Amino acid sequence: VIKPHDFFQYKNGELFAENVACSEIAKEVGTPVYIYSSSAFLKPLRALQVAVPGGSFCFAVKSNSNLAVLSLLNRAGAGADIVSGGELYRCKLAGFPGERIVFSGVGKTADEMKAALTYGENGIHSFNVESEPELERLSDVASSLGKVATVALRYNPDVDPETHPYISTGLREDKFGLSLEPLLAAAKRAEELPGINLKGISIHIGSQILKISPKREAFEKVRSLVIQLNKTLKEPLEFVDLGGGVGIQYLEETPMSLEEYGKLVHESFSDLELDLFFEPGRFISGNAGIFLTEIQYRKSTPDKDFLVVDGAMNDLIRPALYESYHHVVPVTESHQKADLKPTDVVGPVCESGDFFAQMRALSTDLKQGDLVALLSAGAYGAVMSSQYNSRPRAPEVLVEGDRFTVVRRRETLEDLVEAELKNEIGGHA
Ligand SMILES: *Cc1c(COP(=O)(O)O)cnc(C)c1O
C-alpha cells in the first residue's frame, strides 16, 4: 500500500519532500504552497504497468493538470484521459501523442470535438461517448472534417462503487454513461453513422473505490456486453477502457491491492483479444503532493482550539466538499507529540465550511509562524482551487531528489483582476 508519508518523511526532525526540507521551500516560495514529489507520481504508475502488463494508462488529467506533472507522466509512458478542450490544450503543451489520449465527459461541445479530431497528425485515440445525441454530433463534426472518430460507448453498469455520493458515477441515477438498452441502441446507430467507428466500451463507476467487489461486478458486466455486441456488430470491438477510481490511503484505509486488481483484469478480459485502457487519476497523483500552510493564529476555547492558517478552502476544497480526511503534520517533528488538544485547523475564508481538519489531536506547542502540511493533497487539490475571497492561487513546486522547481508561480494581485474591465470603470488608486 502506498502511504501518504512515503515521499514526505521526517529527517533530523524536519519534514522533507524527497531530499528537500519543506521549510526551505516555504522560505523561498512562501506559503501556502503545494509541494509534489516526482518519484511519488512515478511509483504508482510503474506499479500499474507491472500489475497489468500491456495495459495503456491514461492519467486522468483532471486530478492534477500541472504541465510539469503532465510532462513527467508523458515521459514515463502514460497517456491522458481528458474531459475538456482546456485539458486537451494542456496535453499538447506537455507533448502527449494523440494516440495516447482518450476524451471522456458527458458534455463535449462541437469545438472540443473538432480540436480533438485535429490534434497532432491523426487526432486522439478515442472518444468515450455518453449519449446518442453526442454520437450524432460527433459524426457530424468528424464528417465535416473528412474524418472518422474512433469511439467507445460509455456503459453505465448500475454498480454501487460504495464511495462518497459526489464521486459515484456508475449508478443508474447518475448522469454518466448509457445503461444496457440505450447502449445497444446507440451501438446500432453508431454503425450507420458515417463519422463514427465504434471500437470499444468504456466505464468509470466512481472514484476512491477501496473494495475490489464493485470493480468485479462492473468488469463482469462489461465482459458480457462485449461478448453480446461482438455477435451483432459487423466488426468486433478492439478495446475496453476500464476507467479510473482505484482508491488510495488517506487515513488508514486498505485499498484493493494492485495484484488483486491486475488478476481481476486478467480473469475478466484476457481471452477476448482486447486492448486494455485505464484512466487512473487519484491513484497516481493523490499521495504525490502535500499542501504546506503557515499558522497565523491560535484561538483557544475551553473545549478545543482553532489553528487559523494561511491556506483555505479556495486552495484545497476537499474537506469542505466531501468532508475528506487529510493528515495534518507539523513540519517540525517535535511538535507532533507533546500536549495534544482537540483542534480545528481552519482558513481565513468567510464560510464555516472553511476547515481542513476538525477535532484533530494536535500539539498545543504549535504556534504562530509554524508550518503544517496537509498530506495526500496531490489529487483534486490545486486543480480545484479558486480565487474565492480574492485570494491569489497558491504556487506549485515539484521536487526531484534534492532539487525543487516552482512549476506554477504564486498568483499576484494583478492576476486577480487580469481578465476584468479596468480602464473603463474609472477607478483610481
Ligand atoms: C474522474 C475520472 C477519472 C479518474 O478518477 P480517479 O478516481 O481519480 O482515478 C477517470 N475517468 C473518468 C471518466 C473520470 O471522470
SSE topology sketch:
Blueprint: E1 10-11, E2 14-17, E3 20-21, H1 22-29, E4 33-37, H2 38-51, E5 56-60, H3 67-75, E6 79-82, H4 85-94, E7 101-103, H5 110-117, E8 126-129, H6 132-144, E9 149-154, H7 180-192, E10 196-202, H8 213-232, E11 239-241, H9 258-269, E12 275-278, H10 282-285, E13 289-300, E14 305-309, H11 318-322, E15 328-330, E16 340-346, E17 355-363, E18 371-374, E19 396-400, E20 403-408, H12 413-417
Helix pairs in contact: 3-4, 5-6, 8-9
The chain binds pyridoxal-5'-phosphate (PLP).
Q: Tell me the Rg in angstroms.
A: 23 Å
What characteristic shape results from the CA principal axes? Answer: globular
Structural class: alpha/beta
Instruction: Report the end-to-end length measured between terminal Cα atoms.
Output: 55 Å
Q: For this entry, what is the oligomeric state of its chains? A: single chain
Largest sheet: 9 strands, mixed
- Give the integer mean of the pLDDT values: 96
What amount of the residues lies in strands? 15-25%
Instruction: Count helical runs.
Output: 12
Bound molecules: pyridoxal-5'-phosphate
Total count of strands: 20
State the helicity in percent bands: 25-40%
**Uncertain regions spanning at least 5 consecutive residues:** none
